[in-house]
Every structure is written in structure tokens, then in C-alpha cells.
Write a structure and sequence with these properties.
By secondary structure, the chain is an all-alpha fold. It has 14 helices and no strands. Helix content is 70%, strand content 0%. The longest helix is centred in the last third of the chain and has 23 residues. The termini are far apart.
Length: 294
Amino acid sequence: MEALQSALQPLRPITANLPGPIRDLGVSLLGDVCYQTLILELDPTDSNCLKLAISKGLGIGIIGASSIVKVPQIIKLLNSKSSAGISFLAYVLETSSYLISLAYNVRNGFPFSTFGETALILGQNVIITVLVLNYSGRASAAALFVAALAVSAATLFSSSLLDMKTLGYLQAGAGVLGVASKVPQIAAIVQQGGTGQLSAFTVFNYLAGSLSRIFTTLQEVDDKLILYGFIAGFALNLVLAAQMVYYWNAPSPKARGKLPEAPMAPSPSSSATGSSTATPGTPKSKGPTTRRRG
């Protein structure tokens, strides 16, 4: 580590003269003390500041990835015009969980880097849920879903309508909802024997994101409700990822229904009777007649 610190020292004149916007961003992310230690002094030996910097980097990376994490899923739905393999109940539960968590984090004033992806994924979830309802022939239910979501958001973000104590209880329930939202999707995959229109990109990004969020929560947010929710979510995301790997090359249920059936081998009895049965191309032999001549 000392060798690394010595190698970084020639860069100090550069870090000491960073543009104002970059410097302000660094201070807002790391704080004055860690910015001084890691950026100005280029000292990577401070473990606390190093962990904070890693946590901030992971948080920003998760937020960046979450902006497109469900875009492949949306594209698959639009191209296929089918919601096969997508659990509507799973998305309703997950969307509800994310909405509550977003309100809880915002009203508690937690750093945006620890929950920013919640807002981005929430918006993508709404789009997917509406598409699933439309492709299931329930367009009116889609409009009702959006209206109910808007009313819920107005209530959750309003301190005059909902106090923090009640919101804390809802956050505990949101953790349960987040875990429960994975169960219908896991069950749907098992019942259908395949992942259908489920996006592998989305599943594996969720797995990596939930693991990273455990680390960032431990470093930056002293809230057990959020931590336990991420741990449980990671466990079920791991199950979904395992299903994705297991069913990777499995044909879809529709494709399995179109597979040609293997021809049945003739049974010994049918072959025996077939040998004594006259075929259309074989002339019949003339046997004796009982008609009297004369």
C-alpha cells in the first residue's frame, strides 16, 4: 500500500487543481475529510474513507445500470406482443414495495446514491405492468393500476397525510413485499417449465445490484429494515438467476407443443394380421365357386 501511495504522489498537483464543479461533486460524495484524504493527499491507507469511496462508486454504478436494467424486458414485451412467462402479481408487489421504499428514503433524507435506482426501476416497472395488462386483454385494468399508483404516491410522500412512524411500519411491510414479489415469478417459471419473455439481463443485473446494495447499506445507512430487505432480495434473486441458467436452452412451451411426435413402432399382433390382409395393389386369387353350371 505504501508503494501505491508513493506512486500516486506525482498526481497531487493535478488533484489539487481540479475544476470547481468536479471538486464540489467530490466533496458532496465523500465529505470534506475523505475528499482531503483520498483526492488531495492521495492517501489510500485510510480504510474508512476507502470503504466510503467504494460504496459511493458502487451506488453510482447501480443507479447508472438501473436506468436501463429493464429496458431489455420492455423491448422483449413490445416485440413479442406477449406477456408469457411474466408474472403480473410479481410486478404489482415489487412496484408497491419500491414506491414505499422510495418515499421512506426520501423522507428520511438518506443519500441519493443509496436508493436512486429505486426511482428509476419503479418507472420501468410501471411500464412493464401496463404492457403485461394490455397484452393480457385488460387495458382498463392498466388505467386503474396507474390511477391507484398515483394516489398511493401522493399519500406516501405527504407528511400531513402519513406520519413517519406509520411509514416506518410500511417500510417493514415493503421488505416483505419485495421478497414476496419474487415468489410468483419463481413459481411461474416452474409451472411453465421455462423463462418465457423474462430478460436474462434484468435478472442478472438484479442479482449484482442487490449484492452491492448490501455493502452500500452497511457503509452508509444505519437502518436494519433496509438491510434485511436487501439480504432477502439477494437470496431470491439468486434463485431466479439459477432458474435462468437451468432453463437457458429449454424450448418454450409453445415450441414444445409443435415438436413432431415419434412414429409408433408396429406391434407384433398388427404385423401378423397385416401379412394376411390383402393390399389394394394385390389381385385377389380366384377360389372355387358354389354356383352350379349347366
